Amino acid sequence: YVxxxxxxxxxxxxxxxxxxxxxxxxADFSDRLNGDVAGSCVKSYTGMIxxxxxRSYWKSSSEFAKEQLVFHELGHCIFKKGHNDAWRKVxxxxxxxxxxxxxxxxxxxxxxxxxxxxxxxxxxxxxFGEQSEENSFSTGGHCSPTTDW
Length: 149
What we know:
- Helix 1 packs across helix 3.
- A hairpin with a 6-residue loop joins strand 4 and strand 5.
- The chain is globular and about 45 Å long.
- By secondary structure, the chain is of the alpha+beta class.
- A three-stranded mixed β-sheet has the order 1-3-2. It has a three-stranded antiparallel β-sheet with strand order 5-4-6, with no helix packed on it.
């Protein structure tokens, strides 16, 4: 069973990843995730993917934050990606200065959702291995979110 509210994000993931996961996934809301945990994804020994999303997180999140959460969790199950807590300095053409942003959708807490909408093409290109001139940024290496520019 895939909850109808989560289903469009699963479809987006399938389109970008070119993976057909519909028949191998269960995705629903949960009230039993602990503390600040917004989602969880586990792949069983049978190959079934079980995605759980915090109902309260979902209700208070934008469409962009919902997409980032679903992709992040599926990144664990489908791509076997771990968390990436690195930050990256980016220079944006036509903008003043630079920004220090979480370097991946796989950042371990909700911090990336503050940057996801603005840098969505960068994050998706990186996540799906589709970097191109249209979705890449000049990067200045690693940085710290507390660095003063």
